[in-house]
């Protein structure tokens, strides 16, 4: 459904993604993991056409995204930090987004209602708390019933009730066969919501397989300990590289 082919991305001298290849299939939910600064958000932004790679292609449902924006309506994106025009009201943000996508007539307003945003439509964006802003971002990601959901640290800043509401929503969408990609540092959350693990390290895909295989390969039954094992292995590989370069 999304094919990332030989993507290379540098910011100045910093090589963030080196010859990156990944396939994301419908019906699967992917945990995109890696240390801070490993390139998770950069990869997401490349898929969304918000960052242009130095080389490589991204195909969404078989079509290269190069320069096209139509494909974006298939993707619901929840950014790590949502940025909105500050002087407009929540309701205006929703109607503005609906105007941008006139081809979509049926809206999914479950999260708007679950989060109680329908009672705050007149609140200006600049008056919102960080968590309420996150709720607006979540509601928008699901509003247009996209086939693909990309959620960058979706529960960061949400209160425990909102976290449960959002997690349940993600699970319901997954059951409908959608493709879901989630980045998070909260391993318990990834364990609950995903069936496929991708671990990025130093610009490369260090691990890319099902959560079941991850547990089998690491010999660990729990997701969090399996990931801890992967992290250890990635750091050891790195130490070996440094030792070799000093030899
Ligand atoms: N526009 C930019 N200009 C220069 N460097 C950038 C830019 N965007 C990202 N970077 C750098 O690229 C690297 C990868 O950043 P990215 O945000 O993709 O990491 P991440 O894996 O999402 O991190 P985190 O877990 O902290 O959210 C970082 O070193 C970051 O400083």
Automatic annotation (TrEMBL):
Keywords: ATP-binding, Nucleotide-binding, Transport. The keyword Ligase does not apply. CDD domains: ABC_DR_subfamily_A (cd03230). Pfam families: ABC_tran (PF00005). GO terms for molecular function: ATP binding; ATP hydrolysis activity. It comes from Cecembia calidifontis. The keyword Transmembrane helix does not apply. This is Cu-processing system ATP-binding protein. Residues 2-227 form the ABC transporter domain.
